[in-house]
Amino acid sequence: TVEKMKGNSTILVTGGSGYVGSHTIVELLKNNYTVIVLDNLVNSYSDGGCKPEALKRVEEITGETVTFYDVDITDRAALDKVFKNHKIDAVMHFAALKAVGESVRIPLKYYQNNVGGSAILLEVMACNGVKNMVFSSSATVYGDPQFLPITESHPTGQGCTNPYGKSKYFVEEIMKDVCTADPDWKVILLRYFNPVGAHESGLIGEDPSGIPNNLMPYIAQVAVGRRDKLQVFGSDYPTPDGTGVRDYIHITDLAIGHLKALERMFSPNFKSWKAYNLGTGHGYSVLDMVKAFSEVADRPINYEMVGRREGDIASCYADASLAKQELNWVATRDIKDMCRDTWNWQKKNPKGFKSS
Ligand code: NAD
Ligand code: WQD
């Protein structure tokens, strides 16, 4: 049964002290999975103690403990040791660099870390007889969409304009080839749309270092007074109000999607690989988000219209019906919930995890 499987399964989570990983671990622990985390801390805060701050908070939320390894996925020997130390049933692979602009400046770093690191991880998994993988992919693999809403059968790889996006596409292709070569492999590719929000406790959330690249954390930092005003990148897109439209999805819904994917992968009729969109199916503009946040936080959000950001697309939102049919998953949290939980996290942790 599913209940028995949960209680008996050990999941290795790479990049587990990051934003999506930490929220997913909360849901895994709530469902009785045993969780082993590895992260090299390149994008998550630690005070130098035994565990990164995000994982201490996860333990506070759940009352459960996780085993943590400060390991880089490109370090084959260290990875292998983790697999030798534990009987791992499946890997959830979040570890990656994710800053689009940075990936244009230092592409090799992105390919080495995201593509090279994933290849090494797959090899070490195979050597240790672990052939179950849930991978953090992205709607970015669809490029500038040819049609909306985007289904999983939309072409991938064609319009990826930056090395980050290409790295996600390349890893997807590598994983498909691995499944073709060896029928024992099971892989689920989860294509996230735009994850936002925070755990309802306000104990964990998105903690960008430096100036946020993404919309929601930027708005939150303006609201809390850390930044002067939001720059709205482009007001002449072919959208209802001229600003970019995206499918924002609450991080807790996204995390639950990972559990559903795991259950699907462990079901007897699942074979080879399959890709699923994780989105709400609804598109909201930049100004919609500013308005919703301003209402929830009960204060004006200062903003100015500026030119388009290079590489941005006008609109992107999911057809999320395949995940509903096959994973039995739908997003249940709306943009008000997303704004409220982001604001709760931002107020409680004005400087992110460093506030503690
Ligand atoms: P994040 O940066 O918060 O988390 C990633 C974690 O991976 C970090 O803790 C970082 O320290 C770690 N890491 C990076 N390289 C590593 C390496 N070589 N070895 C070990 N650990 C390493 O990012 P996130 O937002 O939680 O994203 C998680 C995954 O989801 C990533 O693969 C990302 O590309 C993907 N994704 C994110 C979004 C988004 O908007 N947040 C959207 C689509 C896909
Ligand atoms: C959303 C909208 C901006 C910041 C990126 C990656 C994508 C995925 C998620 C991982 C756009 C506008 C933003 C700001 C703004 N990551 N904006 N002012 O670009 O949809 O996706 O993160 O896979 O690969 O490309 O998300 O949050 O950066 O932007 O006006 O300061 O907000 O132009 O319309 P994006 P975002």
Automatic annotation (TrEMBL):
Cellular component GO terms held in the UniProt record: cytosol
UniProt cross-references to Pfam families, sorted A to Z: GDP_Man_Dehyd (PF16363)
GO biological process terms held by the UniProt record: galactose catabolic process via UDP-galactose, Leloir pathway
Reaction equation(s) it catalyzes: UDP-alpha-D-glucose = UDP-alpha-D-galactose; UDP-N-acetyl-alpha-D-glucosamine = UDP-N-acetyl-alpha-D-galactosamine
This protein's pathway: Carbohydrate metabolism; galactose metabolism
The entry's keywords: Carbohydrate metabolism, Galactose metabolism, Isomerase, Membrane, NAD, Transmembrane, Transmembrane helix
GO MF annotations, alphabetized: UDP-glucose 4-epimerase activity; UDP-N-acetylglucosamine 4-epimerase activity
Cofactor dependency: NAD(+)
Residue ranges of every copy of the NAD(P)-binding domain listed in the record: 12-342
EC class: isomerase
EC number: 5.1.3.2
Alphabetical list of SUPFAM superfamilies matching this protein: NAD(P)-binding Rossmann-fold domains
Subunit description: Homodimer.
UniProt function note: Catalyzes two distinct but analogous reactions: the reversible epimerization of UDP-glucose to UDP-galactose and the reversible epimerization of UDP-N-acetylglucosamine to UDP-N-acetylgalactosamine. The reaction with UDP-Gal plays a critical role in the Leloir pathway of galactose catabolism in which galactose is converted to the glycolytic intermediate glucose 6-phosphate. It contributes to the catabolism of dietary galactose and enables the endogenous biosynthesis of both UDP-Gal and UDP-GalNAc when exogenous sources are limited.
Family: Belongs to the NAD(P)-dependent epimerase/dehydratase family.
Protein name (database record): UDP-glucose 4-epimerase
